[in-house]
Amino acid sequence: MSFLTVQKIHHTYFTKDTSATALSDISLAVEEGEFVSILGPSGCGKTTLLSIISSLLPPTQGTVLLENKPISTAKNDIGYMLQQDYLLPWKTIEENILLGLKLSKQLNEKTKLAALSLLKQIGLTGVEKQLPKQLSGGMRQRVALVRTLATEPKLLMLDEPFSALDYQTKLKLEDLVSQTLDEFGKTAILVTHDIGEAIAMSDRVFLFSPRPGRLHKTFHIPEELRKVPPFEARNHELYSSIFQTIWKELESLDQRNE
């Protein structure tokens, strides 16, 4: 049995007068320590699936299992990192990174020291007593990553966490997040619109078709790219051909949807 198993997920949003099917018959598996991306055009249900996997949204049909147990029993095992950092502006950086530990009743001297140590590991020294407004966007996202990792989640959900950043900061954070998750042996699912980001960071890329979202194709990223940092992967000779392959598949999906 895989670390994470998504089985025959179907989801329909209902209103008083209408219904809209976001996902249809989604089945996939993710192994422990694997980094996968969900890629696809707008309207393919990427964020809906992420919400279902994280048990924030119950599916209309289907099941999600983490370590062979229903995902609803594993809420404390899941960390979420979003496009916005959602740091509380009136709390210091230290208070922000300890918030998850406090809410999950895991805060003690040992976990506090571990969180503060991680802050230093990712290059944020001496910011503990500062407020979020005193930090740049990239630094704030690093703080959000520390807050997410502090509770030691088994599964990390990344919902376009770099899309609001400038390109240079985005590339630096891709490397940092990839290295940090690798060091901690974390399993991660990234939702993104960025083909290059998906290729550079992932072991596998799941390409979804839209309306309703279905798993169209799975791309296995070659080991030569997987074993180097994302920035180096983008400059690898294999990168361009994989990019073109996925781009053509996306174009065919767009034409089919017109």
Automatic annotation (TrEMBL):
PROSITE patterns: ABC_TRANSPORTER_1, ABC_TRANSPORTER_2. One of its GO terms (molecular function) is ATP binding. It comes from the Bacteria. Pfam families: ABC_tran (PF00005). InterPro entries: AAA+_ATPase, ABC_transporter-like_ATP-bd, ABC_transporter-like_CS, ABC_transporter_ATP-bind, P-loop_NTPase. Gene3D superfamilies: P-loop containing nucleotide triphosphate hydrolases. Keywords: ATP-binding, Nucleotide-binding, Transport. This is ABC transporter ATP-binding protein. It comes from Neobacillus novalis.
